[in-house]
Amino acid sequence: MLRIDCPCCGVRDHSEFRYGGDATAERPAHDNPDLDAWYRYVYVRANPKGLHREFWQHVLGCRQWLVVERDTVTHSIHSVNFSRRQRA
Amino acid sequence: MTPTEKRLASGGYLDRSQVLKFTFDGRQYAGFKGDTLASALLASGVSLVGRSFKYHRPRGILSAGAEEPNALVTVGTGARREPNLPATMLELAPGLDAASQNNWPSLRFDVQSVNSLFSPLLSSGFYYKTFMGPSRRAWMFYEYFIRRAAGLGKATMMPDPDVYDSRDDFTDVAVVGGGAAGLSAARAAAQAGARVLLIEQDFEIGGRLLSEPAGAAWLQAMRTELESMPNLRIMRRTTAFGLYDGNTLALIEDADPFAGRDMGAARKTFTLLHAQSIVFATGAIERPMVFANNDRPGVMLNSAIRAYVNRYAVLPGRNIVIATADDSAYLTAFDLLAHGARVTIADARPMAEPTLLTRAKQMGAEVHLATNVANVKGKYAVEGVVLAGKAGTTGVSCDLVGMSAGWSPVLHLTSHQGVKPVYRPDIDAFVPGPLPETQFVAGAATGSSGVSAAIAEGATVGRAAAAVAGKVGTVAEAPALEIEETAGPTTVYKPIFGQRKAFVDFQMDVTLDDIQLAQREGYESVEHLKRYTTLGMGTDQGKTSNINALKAMAKLRGISIPVAGTTTFRPPYTPVAIGAVAGRARGHHFRPYRLTPIHDWHTANGAQMLEVGLWMRPWFFEASGKDVNAAYVNEMRHVRSAAGIMDISTLGKIDIQGPDAATFLDRVYANGFASLKVGRARYGVMLRDDGIVFDDGTTTRLGPDRFFMTTSTAKAADVLSWLEFLLDTAWPDLRVSVSSVSDEWAGMSVAGPESGKILAAAFPDIGFSNEAFPHMGLAEGAFRDSPLRIIRLSYSGERAYEIYVGASNGEAAWRHLIDAGAPYGLKPYGVEALGALRVEKGHVAGPEIDGRTTLSDLGMGRMVAKRSGYVGEALSRREAFTAANRQRLVGLKCIEPGKRLRGGALLFAPGEPLEGHGHGRMTSITYSPELDCYVGLGLLAADFEGDEVIASYPMKNEVVRARVVSPVFLDPAGERMHG
Fold first, then answer.
1. Are B868 and A31 within 8 A, CB to CB?
2. Are residues B382 and B454 both part of a single domain?
3. What does the pLDDT read at residue A49?
4. Do B539 and B443 have their domain in common?
5. Which residues, numbered 217 to 256 in chain B, qualify as contacts with chain A under a Cβ-Cβ cut-off of 8 Å?
6. Where would I find the beta strands (DSSP E) of B745-799?
7. Which of A35, A65, A75 is opposite residue B724, by nearest beta carbon?
């Protein structure tokens, strides 16, 4: 029963969103051929207790991909930001 | 109706002008509006209302609330039969039809009550120990009979004809419980300016105040005030049954049986309530005492007796023994004495509050201190008790026994989120643990006793709860209530061992002996105790039994109660009709299917429709054949010999724009797109990051910076999300926008040798010669008032065109093509033929792109041989994907005349035993009219030797030989689609 404060649409129920996994995993550059870097990005997860950054997409709203900072113990949400870095 | 024998002449919260007739076990009775089924039965002199779960012992009414373990009834008949409803919570309504449970042939004479004679055998674990042999199957055999013998009511097997709603709701402050504390909290929070929702499980607000004659005026004034507050709502008949993340409460509301229900109105409503802050004013439940035969009809909780006397104006007995370990029972005694009943008090404590003792004696009660009930006489109704005191045992005749062993705060909701209850030895009870700062408790739920304390606590937390929501307006002091109060218990009540048939859990038939047995056999932890004896596992979830069981176990082990610990409380607090949680989302409303813009034409023209993923699509057309097997083959033949038209509006369609769009697609697709010329289309395959094939489709370049992508029907939403993910998170520097246009465009495909002529007839402004409009070419135009896109693409292997027009013109364009194509024999075809045509041509689809296959597996490795920098590239090169036994796409041709292939069949080598998973499997099959045999696609180990396999289909015991061939069964050079 999470409520996510979408920076575009306001507070919405989590059922409007799609979970997108760990936002702390560093995605290698598209032309990086390093198998090990991709292996770590795709498969290796920390499963932290406490604050965690994760991707959510507001699929039934603005469709923006967001970075949600959530406490895995209390499920409280500390921050919600657009994942796309704003261009000047 | 007859004047009922136990109803008092006046008093109670009853509307005596509304006489309600109801049926119990086929006999008609009457009660008043304001009665529960339990109070109306008691008023009518009915005290035997059910049989117990295991021993089939006669049972009556124990409580007056949601904790009731005994008086469970089945209401309604046919499809509306609902079992295990506590009579104490059933609001009496006109025509209520209830029946007792777990008895045969009748409640009075129940055959299986002989179980009671064998009860020494039927102790905990008996079934499992006894019915173990001679083999494992034995238990399966015995279980059927055991399950038939034990049990509660039976639910209907018919579909539920009623309607339910589910909804979300929002409030600043939620107050759970409408007793003194809850009313006071709601009032204070509302006065402070907060939006308040007061939730009461009963049909009447007031809680225990309804049992306090002296509280009536205060309650009436409070109710009037609250009902006049515009920012305060009251939900009656509503149970908050679960607490979830983010201060979300799950509520279940019963419809008011007296409000006329419109057609389609909900019987129950499920609400997810999102609250800024929550006040738990859930009160407390009185605990039974544990003594021999304490389950006989006529043994009740003292607080329940008080509720029946004062709220329902029922005097359930005239000669009453009140057993207690607690002062509050004296108030029950005083009320009974005032109504002229004879009362004997057996107080387990050596001393009680002197003023209470004096008054009890003045009013004519006989009081025995340091005295316990040792046994109860009577089977179907109480006839007397044996009292055990310092001076030995004495028999006392009576027709009702009251008991109270202290109070348990209702802390279930507060601990649903993991807050552990805390034991308070001074009041001998568990109370809620430290709650988050947005949650509060007030009144008896905190362990405090007395109405004035509840009112004061309610006011304090109501104000604090409003402050959480930022509402800090002035709160006027709550009106005071002058009422007789009692203090808490002075000693801790402990069950006395050595008594037979002394029930701890009434619903699950667990006795003190069972708990001793569990301890002897090593099931000492409360969680083991619960599972071994089934204690607390009934529909009442052990509301009256948990603490007594815990005390018994603590005493047996010689440890303190907090060390023994409690079991975990989980939602729901009371049983919830699953239909209400589903609400209107049942049947097709659970996952509504989508209709294409051409749907109505299909159904009007003999299409058999099929649910495909989210969509309804034509399966086959009746004109093509009498059943699907005949029809699809005819439709295939027709496409290959003349032309067919197919609705492809379900494909995912994505508009891609921006200066970097070509670069973006060049990375997203494994095969290259940077070189695609304007006005041309290309087949593309996407991989996932892990190197597995994700989806395929075609993308057409409409302009230098603009592309039109189609995806498979099934993956449309996932592909769009994936493209958005890559642009938002991975490559924000790419200047590209993607947008779904799936619903904006209707799509149809015309395939077959005559398709070019049909298109030329339909759209004379466009040239359809091979030179002007080659395979993989694009033409744009207009149809009526919408844009038109025609792309020459082939899925079937024939010359074919995909035509896209605005969705609102979809059916018109379809009709236009049907008319233009009529001279050339154009006919519609369905998804069965579509799938068959692509198998013949060796095109992969969902059964092959199954989330486990790579490009090389599907024979498309060459597409990316000289490429790099695309999604999934690095991990697609891992060693495991090049293993020698990797299963690769092959064609399979049935070589036994008269036999067929089946999708899912396992592939073995000839002569090999047909065991295990084989060397691969058949993924897609079809009958091929071209080859006049069954053909299929399959995945077969690359190191498989030989060109023949045995395809085994164990589900139908079919074994057939097939030849391994190229997956392209037809026109390998592609002359048909280019020609």
1. yes
2. no
3. 96
4. no
5. 244-246, 248
6. 745-751, 778-783, 786-791
7. A65
Domain A3-82 has CATH 3.30.2270.10: yes
Query: Does B148 score more than 70 pLDDT?
Result: no
State yes or no: pLDDT of B826 exceeds 50. Answer: yes
Q: Are residues B659 and B620 in the same domain?
A: no
How far does the CA of residue B244 sit from the closest CA of chain A (Å)?
7
Whether chain B has a CB inside 8 Å of the CB on A78: the answer is no
Name the least confident of B55-64, B104-113, B294-303. B104-113
Inter-chain Cβ pairs, chain A and chain B, closer than 8 A? 69
- Residue B143 in domain: no
Residue B736 and residue B631 in one domain? no
Taking the C-alpha atoms of residue A53 and residue A66, their distance in angstroms, rounded to an integer, is: 10
Q: Read off the pLDDT of residues B291-302 as tens digits, 9 standing for 90 and up.
A: 999 999 999 999
Q: Looking at per-residue confidence, does B127 or B684 come out higher?
A: B684
Structural domains counted in chain B: 6
**pLDDT > 60? residue B150:** no
Burial of B426 from C-beta contacts in 10 A (0-12 / 13-18 / 19+): exposed
Q: Residue B177: left (phi > 0), alpha (psi -120 to 50), or beta?
A: left
pLDDT score recorded for residue B111: 65
My answer on whether B820 and B901 are in the same domain is: no
CB-closest option in A3, A38, A82 to B875: A38
B192 and B280 housed in the same domain: yes
The stretch A46-65 carries a mean pLDDT of: 96
Q: Is the pLDDT of residue B900 over 60?
A: yes
Residues belonging to chain B = 979
**Residue B21 belongs to what H/E stretch?**
strand B15-24
Structure tokens at A38: 């991709």
The pLDDT assigned to B566 comes to 82
CB contact under 8 A, B874 and A63: no
Structure tokens at A63: 């469709």
Which residue has 């029907």 as its token pair?
A: B713
pLDDT tens-digit profile of B773-813?
999 999 999 999 999 999 999 999 999 999 999 999 999 99
The answer to whether A27 faces chain B, any CB pair under 8 Å, is yes
- The answer to the question of residue B86 being in a domain is no
Quote the DSSP letter at residue B676: P
Res. B132: pLDDT tops 80: no
Enumerate the residues of chain A whose CB falls inside 8 A of the CB of residue B731: 30
In Å, how far is B721's CA from the nearest CA of chain A? Answer: 8
Statement to judge: residues B644 and B766 lie in one domain: yes
Q: Give just the sign of the alpha carbon dihedral B425, B429, B433, B434.
A: negative
Q: Which domain holds residue B517?
A: 503-559
Residue B488 included in any domain: no
Does residue B871 belong to the interface with chain A, where contact is any CB pair within 8 Å? yes
**Chain A, window 29-68: residues with a beta carbon less than 8 angstroms from a chain B beta carbon:** 30-35, 37-39, 41-43, 55, 57, 59, 63-65
Residues of A in contact with B721 (CB under 8 A): 18, 57, 59
Cβ neighbors of B118 (< 8 A, separation 6 or more) are none
Residue B478 lies in a domain: no
Find the mean pLDDT for residues B650-679: 97
ipTM over 0.90 threshold: yes
Mean predicted confidence (pLDDT) in B855-883: 94
The verdict on B731 and B750 lying in the same domain is no
Residue B450 has pLDDT above 80, yes or no: yes
Chain B: residue nearest A27 by CA? B730
Structure tokens at B681: 């289309």
